[in-house]
Amino acid sequence: MDCLAEIPRAPLDRRPRKRQRLGWDVGPEIDQIQTGLCGQEVANAISAVTLGLLSSGFASSQETKKLPRFASPPLREDDKEGHFVFAVGDNLTSRYRFNAKMGEGTFGQVLECWDRECKEMVAIKIIRGIKKYRDAAMIEIGMIEQLGKYDKSRSSCVQIRNWFDYRNHICIVCEKLGPSLYDFLRKNNYRSFPIALVREVAKQLLECIAFMHELRLIHTDLKPENILLVSPEYIKVPDYKVSSRSPKEGSYYKRLPKSSAIKVIDFGSTTYDQHDQTYVVSTRHYRAPEVILGLGWSYPCDIWSVGCILVELCTVC
């Protein structure tokens, strides 16, 4: 099962956006400390004890090397917004090791981690340790598992590989994918895609939405940020539409993805089709008229969003 990651906006974003336990989380050296100390104090206490033993001759450099190789890092307090605090090189259970931060959003963070079992890099979405975000994460996991149960042809809906609860944070593991369509456009100075590429994206996107609608599921939040390219690789081609009056370094070339393969992510707002659904859904730029007017919405709201996305891919400048 796979899951995807949501990449936050960078300073160049010119459009306003709006978005709505297991027993392996404590290492053996911390397990033995039964005090009310915070994570940093525990780490300091362990360091002080270790130094004392070394200076007293009770421990040697050889003995310190016998510490568990895959032990969990010291307990750390979450930041003031409930985000998980980590350090590159730390372990996330004995299976995963933090390698880099890929992005951060309202939901939490997406981290690149090394999977020791599969011997590859994966993306892990670590949800903020706040009840409403944990609840939303469990809804998303349920929806993705429901999709994976019936998705025999491996459509463009992302699937999670694994999930677990680590120190009050829901962690969702998925394959490491490329950038979102929006992030690719932003880094490409908002230049349009060729029609042939837009056509390939449209085909996959519509197949994914048709599959969801057959299961009576409505995504409700389709937008370029929630569509990820499978591969991060790209090529540079001449851009003949650039004005010669205001040339910039590298502006005569634009990027094009090497592969048109995509994955739809973020099923936290996905819902089953019901009657009288009048609450507001979708990000403003991709919101259907019936949603804006409060007339009640259903499957067509997803199709409207798809249309907005395709027009944007063709016409951004």
From TrEMBL:
SMART domains: S_TKc
The keyword DNA-binding appears for this protein: no
Cellular compartments per GO CC: nucleus
Annotated keywords: ATP-binding, Kinase, Nucleotide-binding, Serine/threonine-protein kinase, Transferase
Domain Protein kinase: 96-317
Superkingdom of source: Eukaryota
Keyword Metal-binding on entry: no
Molecular function terms, GO-annotated: ATP binding; protein serine/threonine kinase activity
Protein's recorded name: Protein kinase domain-containing protein
The species this protein was found in: Zizania palustris (Northern wild rice)
